Amino acid sequence: MDRKSILIVTLLGLLCNSCIYYNLYFNRNYYRTETTRPRPILPRFRLAKPEPYRLKAEDQIDTTVIYIAKTKVFKDIVFLRFFGNGRVASGFLEEDSLEYNKPKRCVAGYYRMRSPTEFELQKFLAYSTTHASYEYYRGVVRGDTLFIHFDPPRKKPFSEIKINNKKGYSFYVKQKVDTLIGKPDW
């Protein structure tokens, strides 16, 4: 290779590197501190507008427990914790950890009840160093179990959506815990 080719390749590498550097630091749509999970810079939770949902007496969601799902993929236990002010926290439990009492270290989200047993859920998840997105779920409460659909049709009533054990669903079972402390910071 001659000097001209080496110079062109070097300049091209520097140009691409500067684009990556710019995206890493200036194009991020979330922030994170040492003790928190990612939070949106400009929150755009659709379920928080016009105002967050307030839990009603007839709603079947229980705010005095956590809902857990054991997965085969992760050794950890996934949990959901609902608050009476329309917010929901999710995260992982490792053995005897009390992560559900640390909302700052949980994934931020909102929920809204469509009927006493049917709900919508929206969480803010970071997928890379530059991008995070809002994930939308719908679910139904049956007894002490939550059935959550990952990619639901928004307009179709949930009763028309068939629940099967194969794909697209997650099952969370109610679990009583000794203490629930902490308030959401989002």
What does this protein structure show overall?
It is built from one helix and ten strands. It has two domains: 1-28; 32-176, Lipocalin (Beta Barrel), CATH 2.40.128. It is mainly beta and 186 residues long. The chain has one helix spanning 3-26, and strands at 30-31, 39-40, 65-70, 77-82, 87-93, 107-113, 118-126, 132-142, 145-149, 169-176. The protein is elongated, with a radius of gyration of 21 Å. The strands form two sheets. Strands 3-4-5-6-7-8-9-10 form an eight-stranded antiparallel barrel. It has a two-stranded antiparallel sheet with strand order 1-2. The model has no long low-confidence stretch (mean pLDDT 80).
Order of helices and strands: HEEEEEEEEEE
| Structural domains: how many | 2
Shape: elongated
How far is it from the N-terminal to the C-terminal residue, by CA? Answer: 56 Å
Oligomer: single chain
Rg (C-alpha, Å): 21 Å
* Percent of residues in helices: 10-25%
Overall mean pLDDT stands at 80
CATH topology of the largest domain: Lipocalin
Protein name: Lipoprotein
Care to give the gist of this entry?
This is Lipoprotein. The chain is mainly beta.
Topology of helices and strands:
Blueprint: H1 3-26, E1 30-31, E2 39-40, E3 65-70, E4 77-82, E5 87-93, E6 107-113, E7 118-126, E8 132-142, E9 145-149, E10 169-176
Antiparallel strand pairs: 1-2, 3-4, 3-10, 4-5, 5-6, 6-7, 7-8, 8-9, 9-10
